[in-house]
Design goal:
Helix content is 54%, strand content 12%. By secondary structure, the protein is mostly helical. The protein has one domain (18-101, 116-157): GMP Synthetase, Chain A, domain 3, CATH 3.30.300.180. The protein is elongated, with a radius of gyration of 20 Å.
């Protein structure tokens, strides 16, 4: 009797025979996404599907979508830096309001929302969230986006332009 062939060997052989090595490599993004973007962003945005060389990312709301859109080129560079041969050519974002909700929050968004914090407290809370992101370049870019949008919101709330 011959010795059983390990499933890993069979899968590697099938992938090679079908020429799927590149596709399999691109899908490694699903393995390292959370580590690359950090836990706070990972709660708000998750890779969903890869079509050809385009990664579709589900995002919890339009604010996060805008932030990630501003970081798109840098994120794409970071993702491709982790891949060996095949590279992603684009990131596309789609809303998925099920992401980012805490347990017990209603799907229709009727959960109690926290009161808006004063600027100093919001900044402190935001910096605490940023602390969970390990990549300094991504952290700096998110901070820059937040400061720009946060500053605009504060001016609008205060009645100035």
């Amino acid at each position: 009797m011959s010795k059983p062939t390990p499933i890993r060997t069979l899968l590697e052989s099938l992938i090679a025979t079908k020429g799927w090595e590149g596709r399999v490599e691109l899908h490694k993004v699903f393995e390292f996404w959370d580590e690359l973007v950090g836990p706070d962003i990972a709660r708000q945005a998750q890779p969903h599907v890869i079509r050809k060389t385009i990664l579709w990312v589900r995002v919890s709301d339009s604010v996060w979508m805008q932030q990630l859109h501003l970081l798109k080129v840098m994120l794409l560079d970071k993702l491709n830096g982790r891949l060996k041969k095949n590279k992603l050519t684009d990131l596309r974002f789609q809303l998925d309001t099920a992401l980012g909700r805490e347990d017990g929050e209603e799907a229709d968004g009727q959960a109690a929302r926290p009161a808006r914090l004063p600027s100093a407290e919001r900044k402190k809370e935001f910096e605490a969230l940023l602390a969970s992101i390990h990549d300094e370049e991504i952290k700096a870019a998110i901070r820059q986006c937040w400061l720009k949008t946060g500053h605009l919101r504060d001016n609008k709330e205060n009645g100035s332009h």
